[in-house]
Request: fold
Amino acid sequence: MGNGLHLLDIVFFAMVAAFLILRLRSVLGRRTGNEPPPPQMRPQRADKDNVIDMVAVRKPVSEPAADTPVGRGLAAIRASDPSFDTDGFLAGAGAAFEMIVSAYASGNSAALRPLLSDEVYRNFAGAIEARNRAGERLETRVLGVHSATVAEAGMDGTLAHVTVRFVTDQINVLTDAAGRILEGEPERPTEVTDEWTFRRNVRSPNPNWELVATRSPES
Reply:
């Protein structure tokens, strides 16, 4: 009799254990090795060109003070677009700076088109066309970047705008059709300060920023 009750107890507890295992699997899911990474670490594909945006896994390390105009401007952008990250933006702006400078020097208007606003593109393309008509050639090399810092930031309706001050060492040499140097020195780099303003509509699904203004501040 005692052995029969003991056997019933074993069967009962086995049924309870099986029930709990099934409930846990239904709640937690089963690992197959093919699951996507958790949301905070999942690369987000930004567009059809498979640009991977890792903003979600970066943390700012050079954020301006919150009580400064730049700090308040960045906070306003982040309030409208929580994925915005200052360091990630500056890294992308630095890459865009070198791409645009290189494309402009080589006369590659097609490479410039997706990076520039309509107005800036017209100015750049017009300068390239005038250079080509004159038979001139521009060589530009960015030898080093001293700094890339946010000079201005803010929101204008749904448009976020950030102005970045780039301080770089460059060699810029303009030659004529015969190869004679018109401007610059091939072996002497100069320190160049540029301020470029980038803009993006935070309501747009397109994560890319475009260059909308350039200027060289007076020292």
